[in-house]
Amino acid sequence: MNLSAGRSPGDTSRAADAAVRARGLRVVRGARTVLDDFDLDVRQGTLTGLLGPSGSGKSTLMRAIVGVQRVAGGAVDVLGRPAGAKVLRDRVGYVTQEPAVYGDLTIRQNLRYFARVLGAPRSDVDRVIDQVQLGSHADHLVSRLSGGQRSRVSLATALLGTPELIVLDEPTVGLDPVLRVELWGLFHRIVEAGATLLVSSHVMDEAERCERLVLLREGSLLADDTLPNLLERTGTGDAEQAFLKLIEQADNGMRTP
Ligand SMILES: Nc1ncnc2c1ncn2[C@@H]1O[C@H](COP(=O)(O)OP(=O)(O)OP(=O)(O)O)[C@@H](O)[C@H]1O
Protein backbone atom coordinates (compact mmCIF):
# COMPACT_ATOMS: atom_id res chain seq x y z
CA MET A 1 0.00 0.00 0.00
CA ASN A 2 1.57 3.31 -1.01
CA LEU A 3 -0.29 6.28 0.34
CA SER A 4 2.37 8.75 -0.67
CA ALA A 5 2.26 8.30 -4.42
CA GLY A 6 2.08 11.52 -6.38
CA ARG A 7 3.52 13.76 -3.65
CA SER A 8 4.92 16.85 -5.26
CA PRO A 9 8.46 17.73 -4.18
CA GLY A 10 7.61 21.42 -4.48
CA ASP A 11 4.67 21.13 -2.13
CA THR A 12 5.78 23.08 0.91
CA SER A 13 2.51 23.70 2.81
CA ARG A 14 2.78 22.89 6.49
CA ALA A 15 1.68 19.29 6.71
CA ALA A 16 2.92 19.00 10.30
CA ASP A 17 0.32 21.53 11.54
CA ALA A 18 -2.56 19.58 10.08
CA ALA A 19 -4.17 16.56 11.68
CA VAL A 20 -5.12 15.38 8.20
CA ARG A 21 -3.97 16.61 4.82
CA ALA A 22 -5.08 14.89 1.64
CA ARG A 23 -3.96 15.99 -1.81
CA GLY A 24 -5.18 14.58 -5.10
CA LEU A 25 -6.50 11.47 -3.34
CA ARG A 26 -7.93 8.86 -5.66
CA VAL A 27 -9.62 5.70 -4.44
CA VAL A 28 -11.15 3.05 -6.66
CA ARG A 29 -13.37 0.38 -5.08
CA GLY A 30 -14.53 -2.38 -7.38
CA ALA A 31 -15.50 -0.78 -10.67
CA ARG A 32 -16.15 2.57 -9.07
CA THR A 33 -13.92 5.60 -8.56
CA VAL A 34 -15.11 6.63 -5.11
CA LEU A 35 -12.76 9.58 -4.56
CA ASP A 36 -11.01 11.43 -7.35
CA ASP A 37 -8.48 14.24 -7.04
CA PHE A 38 -9.73 14.84 -3.53
CA ASP A 39 -8.15 17.46 -1.24
CA LEU A 40 -8.85 17.88 2.46
CA ASP A 41 -7.37 19.67 5.45
CA VAL A 42 -8.40 18.98 9.02
CA ARG A 43 -6.85 21.29 11.59
CA GLN A 44 -5.54 19.88 14.84
CA GLY A 45 -7.76 20.29 17.89
CA THR A 46 -11.03 20.60 15.98
CA LEU A 47 -14.25 18.59 15.99
CA THR A 48 -14.92 18.14 12.30
CA GLY A 49 -18.08 16.54 10.97
CA LEU A 50 -17.84 14.58 7.73
CA LEU A 51 -21.34 14.70 6.33
CA GLY A 52 -22.92 13.42 3.17
CA PRO A 53 -25.53 11.01 1.90
CA SER A 54 -25.13 7.26 2.05
CA GLY A 55 -22.58 6.14 -0.53
CA SER A 56 -20.93 9.57 -0.86
CA GLY A 57 -17.55 8.18 0.22
CA LYS A 58 -17.33 9.04 3.94
CA SER A 59 -16.19 5.61 5.10
CA THR A 60 -13.78 5.31 2.19
CA LEU A 61 -12.18 8.65 3.07
CA MET A 62 -11.90 7.66 6.73
CA ARG A 63 -10.33 4.33 5.77
CA ALA A 64 -7.75 6.21 3.67
CA ILE A 65 -7.03 8.52 6.62
CA VAL A 66 -6.42 5.67 9.05
CA GLY A 67 -4.35 3.84 6.44
CA VAL A 68 -6.47 0.75 5.80
CA GLN A 69 -7.65 1.70 2.31
CA ARG A 70 -5.66 0.93 -0.83
CA VAL A 71 -5.38 4.17 -2.74
CA ALA A 72 -4.88 4.59 -6.47
CA GLY A 73 -3.19 8.00 -6.30
CA GLY A 74 -2.47 11.15 -4.36
CA ALA A 75 -1.26 11.50 -0.79
CA VAL A 76 -2.76 11.49 2.68
CA ASP A 77 -0.70 12.77 5.59
CA VAL A 78 -1.83 12.33 9.16
CA LEU A 79 -0.10 14.31 11.92
CA GLY A 80 2.63 15.05 9.41
CA ARG A 81 3.29 11.41 8.47
CA PRO A 82 2.00 9.30 5.57
CA ALA A 83 -1.33 7.72 6.56
CA GLY A 84 -0.89 4.19 7.82
CA ALA A 85 2.73 4.76 8.91
CA LYS A 86 3.78 2.52 11.77
CA VAL A 87 4.58 5.53 13.98
CA LEU A 88 0.93 6.60 13.76
CA ARG A 89 -0.40 3.33 15.14
CA ASP A 90 -0.90 4.60 18.68
CA ARG A 91 -1.49 8.23 17.67
CA VAL A 92 -4.69 7.53 15.72
CA GLY A 93 -7.87 5.92 17.06
CA TYR A 94 -10.53 4.53 14.72
CA VAL A 95 -14.01 3.14 15.29
CA THR A 96 -15.74 1.49 12.35
CA GLN A 97 -19.50 1.42 11.79
CA GLU A 98 -19.71 -2.19 12.93
CA PRO A 99 -19.33 -2.77 16.68
CA ALA A 100 -15.79 -4.03 17.15
CA VAL A 101 -16.06 -5.37 20.69
CA TYR A 102 -16.66 -8.88 22.00
CA GLY A 103 -20.15 -9.62 23.32
CA ASP A 104 -19.02 -12.50 25.51
CA LEU A 105 -16.50 -10.37 27.43
CA THR A 106 -17.23 -7.66 29.98
CA ILE A 107 -16.44 -4.03 29.22
CA ARG A 108 -13.30 -4.22 31.37
CA GLN A 109 -12.15 -7.49 29.76
CA ASN A 110 -12.65 -6.03 26.28
CA LEU A 111 -10.64 -2.95 27.13
CA ARG A 112 -7.84 -4.92 28.82
CA TYR A 113 -7.62 -7.05 25.69
CA PHE A 114 -7.50 -4.04 23.33
CA ALA A 115 -5.02 -2.23 25.61
CA ARG A 116 -2.70 -5.24 25.33
CA VAL A 117 -3.10 -5.41 21.55
CA LEU A 118 -2.42 -1.68 21.18
CA GLY A 119 0.37 -1.61 23.75
CA ALA A 120 -1.53 0.97 25.80
CA PRO A 121 -0.83 1.15 29.54
CA ARG A 122 -3.11 -1.02 31.68
CA SER A 123 -4.04 2.06 33.70
CA ASP A 124 -5.75 3.40 30.57
CA VAL A 125 -8.55 0.85 30.99
CA ASP A 126 -10.15 2.53 34.00
CA ARG A 127 -9.49 5.98 32.56
CA VAL A 128 -11.34 5.30 29.29
CA ILE A 129 -14.20 3.51 31.08
CA ASP A 130 -14.65 6.64 33.21
CA GLN A 131 -14.34 8.86 30.14
CA VAL A 132 -17.30 7.14 28.46
CA GLN A 133 -19.15 7.06 31.80
CA LEU A 134 -19.53 3.30 32.00
CA GLY A 135 -17.87 2.80 35.39
CA SER A 136 -20.99 1.32 36.93
CA HIS A 137 -21.19 -1.26 34.10
CA ALA A 138 -17.49 -2.14 33.83
CA ASP A 139 -18.03 -5.78 34.80
CA HIS A 140 -21.16 -6.30 32.68
CA LEU A 141 -21.05 -8.48 29.59
CA VAL A 142 -21.12 -6.37 26.42
CA SER A 143 -23.88 -8.59 24.97
CA ARG A 144 -26.17 -7.40 27.78
CA LEU A 145 -25.63 -3.70 27.10
CA SER A 146 -27.93 -1.35 25.23
CA GLY A 147 -26.93 -0.14 21.74
CA GLY A 148 -25.83 3.21 23.13
CA GLN A 149 -23.71 1.62 25.83
CA ARG A 150 -22.12 -0.68 23.27
CA SER A 151 -21.26 2.35 21.08
CA ARG A 152 -19.57 3.91 24.08
CA VAL A 153 -17.51 0.75 24.64
CA SER A 154 -16.36 0.91 20.99
CA LEU A 155 -15.48 4.55 21.51
CA ALA A 156 -13.56 3.65 24.68
CA THR A 157 -11.34 1.28 22.67
CA ALA A 158 -10.42 4.20 20.40
CA LEU A 159 -9.43 6.30 23.42
CA LEU A 160 -6.85 3.79 24.70
CA GLY A 161 -3.33 5.16 24.44
CA THR A 162 -4.66 8.75 24.28
CA PRO A 163 -4.55 9.13 20.47
CA GLU A 164 -4.16 12.60 19.02
CA LEU A 165 -6.58 11.95 16.15
CA ILE A 166 -9.79 9.97 16.62
CA VAL A 167 -11.80 8.92 13.58
CA LEU A 168 -15.37 7.77 14.23
CA ASP A 169 -17.48 6.33 11.43
CA GLU A 170 -21.17 7.11 12.04
CA PRO A 171 -20.96 6.59 15.81
CA THR A 172 -24.51 7.79 16.46
CA VAL A 173 -26.33 5.75 13.80
CA GLY A 174 -29.38 3.97 15.21
CA LEU A 175 -29.20 5.77 18.56
CA ASP A 176 -32.13 7.64 20.04
CA PRO A 177 -31.92 11.45 20.24
CA VAL A 178 -31.03 11.48 23.95
CA LEU A 179 -28.10 9.11 23.47
CA ARG A 180 -26.97 11.06 20.44
CA VAL A 181 -26.87 14.27 22.46
CA GLU A 182 -24.93 12.46 25.21
CA LEU A 183 -22.39 11.11 22.75
CA TRP A 184 -21.87 14.51 21.15
CA GLY A 185 -21.26 15.91 24.65
CA LEU A 186 -18.59 13.25 25.08
CA PHE A 187 -17.01 14.11 21.71
CA HIS A 188 -16.73 17.75 22.78
CA ARG A 189 -15.08 16.75 26.05
CA ILE A 190 -12.55 14.62 24.13
CA VAL A 191 -11.67 17.62 21.92
CA GLU A 192 -11.45 19.91 24.95
CA ALA A 193 -8.94 17.43 26.38
CA GLY A 194 -6.74 18.13 23.33
CA ALA A 195 -7.58 15.55 20.65
CA THR A 196 -8.72 16.10 17.06
CA LEU A 197 -11.99 14.36 16.23
CA LEU A 198 -13.32 13.49 12.79
CA VAL A 199 -16.88 12.16 12.99
CA SER A 200 -19.01 11.04 10.06
CA SER A 201 -22.77 11.17 9.91
CA HIS A 202 -25.48 11.22 7.29
CA VAL A 203 -27.82 13.01 9.69
CA MET A 204 -27.63 16.67 8.73
CA ASP A 205 -28.95 17.97 12.04
CA GLU A 206 -25.74 16.70 13.65
CA ALA A 207 -23.93 19.44 11.69
CA GLU A 208 -24.75 22.01 14.34
CA ARG A 209 -22.75 20.01 16.87
CA CYS A 210 -19.55 20.27 14.80
CA GLU A 211 -17.03 23.07 14.85
CA ARG A 212 -16.28 22.50 11.21
CA LEU A 213 -18.11 20.68 8.42
CA VAL A 214 -16.80 18.73 5.49
CA LEU A 215 -19.66 18.04 3.10
CA LEU A 216 -19.26 15.21 0.62
CA ARG A 217 -21.36 14.34 -2.38
CA GLU A 218 -20.56 11.48 -4.72
CA GLY A 219 -16.92 11.54 -3.71
CA SER A 220 -16.52 15.29 -4.22
CA LEU A 221 -15.92 17.94 -1.61
CA LEU A 222 -18.96 20.18 -1.66
CA ALA A 223 -17.83 22.41 1.20
CA ASP A 224 -15.36 22.66 4.05
CA ASP A 225 -16.47 25.42 6.38
CA THR A 226 -18.24 26.30 9.63
CA LEU A 227 -22.02 25.96 9.78
CA PRO A 228 -22.60 29.73 10.30
CA ASN A 229 -20.48 30.47 7.21
CA LEU A 230 -22.34 27.86 5.17
CA LEU A 231 -25.71 29.27 6.20
CA GLU A 232 -24.56 32.77 5.30
CA ARG A 233 -23.09 31.66 1.96
CA THR A 234 -26.23 29.80 0.96
CA GLY A 235 -28.83 32.13 2.57
CA THR A 236 -30.45 29.15 4.29
CA GLY A 237 -31.57 28.41 7.84
CA ASP A 238 -30.27 24.92 8.52
CA ALA A 239 -27.60 22.45 7.45
CA GLU A 240 -29.94 20.34 5.31
CA GLN A 241 -31.13 23.35 3.31
CA ALA A 242 -27.55 24.59 2.99
CA PHE A 243 -26.47 21.17 1.68
CA LEU A 244 -29.27 21.14 -0.91
CA LYS A 245 -28.41 24.67 -1.97
CA LEU A 246 -24.74 23.76 -2.37
CA ILE A 247 -25.72 20.80 -4.56
CA GLU A 248 -27.87 23.10 -6.68
CA GLN A 249 -25.03 25.62 -6.97
CA ALA A 250 -22.54 22.87 -7.87
CA ASP A 251 -24.90 21.47 -10.53
CA ASN A 252 -25.55 24.92 -11.98
CA GLY A 253 -21.82 25.61 -11.97
CA MET A 254 -21.21 22.37 -13.84
CA ARG A 255 -23.79 23.33 -16.45
CA THR A 256 -22.28 26.80 -16.97
CA PRO A 257 -19.90 26.67 -19.97
N1 LIG B 1 -15.85 -3.15 -0.66
C1 LIG B 1 -16.35 -2.42 -1.65
N2 LIG B 1 -16.25 -2.79 -2.94
C2 LIG B 1 -16.73 -2.05 -3.93
N3 LIG B 1 -17.35 -0.88 -3.77
C3 LIG B 1 -17.49 -0.44 -2.51
C4 LIG B 1 -17.01 -1.18 -1.38
N4 LIG B 1 -17.31 -0.48 -0.27
C5 LIG B 1 -17.95 0.63 -0.67
N5 LIG B 1 -18.06 0.65 -2.00
C6 LIG B 1 -18.69 1.72 -2.80
O1 LIG B 1 -18.00 2.92 -2.54
C7 LIG B 1 -18.90 4.03 -2.52
C8 LIG B 1 -18.68 4.82 -1.25
O2 LIG B 1 -18.97 3.99 -0.13
P1 LIG B 1 -18.72 4.49 1.36
O3 LIG B 1 -19.00 3.33 2.24
O4 LIG B 1 -17.39 5.14 1.44
O5 LIG B 1 -19.86 5.60 1.52
P2 LIG B 1 -20.46 6.27 2.83
O6 LIG B 1 -20.65 7.72 2.49
O7 LIG B 1 -19.61 5.96 3.99
O8 LIG B 1 -21.86 5.55 2.95
P3 LIG B 1 -22.73 5.17 4.26
O9 LIG B 1 -23.18 6.47 4.85
O10 LIG B 1 -23.85 4.37 3.69
O11 LIG B 1 -21.82 4.37 5.14
C9 LIG B 1 -20.31 3.44 -2.64
O12 LIG B 1 -20.72 3.59 -3.97
C10 LIG B 1 -20.13 1.98 -2.34
O13 LIG B 1 -21.03 1.19 -3.04
Describe what this molecule looks like in 3D.
The chain has 257 residues and is α/β, with parallel strands linked by helices. The chain has a single domain, classed as 3-Layer(aba) Sandwich (Rossmann fold), CATH 3.40.50. Helices cover 32% and strands 25% of the residues. It has seven helices and ten strands. The strands form two sheets. It has a six-stranded mixed beta sheet with strand order 6-7-8-3-9-10, sandwiched between helices. Strands 2-1-4-5 form a four-stranded antiparallel beta sheet, with helices on one face. β1 and β2 form a beta hairpin. α6 crosses α7. The chain is globular and about 55 Å long. The termini are far apart. The N terminus is likely disordered. The site of adenosine-5'-triphosphate (ATP) has 13 residues, from β2 and α1. This is ABC-2 type transport system ATP-binding protein. It comes from Haloactinopolyspora alba. Keywords: ATP-binding, Nucleotide-binding. One of its GO terms (molecular function) is ATP binding. Pfam families: ABC_tran.
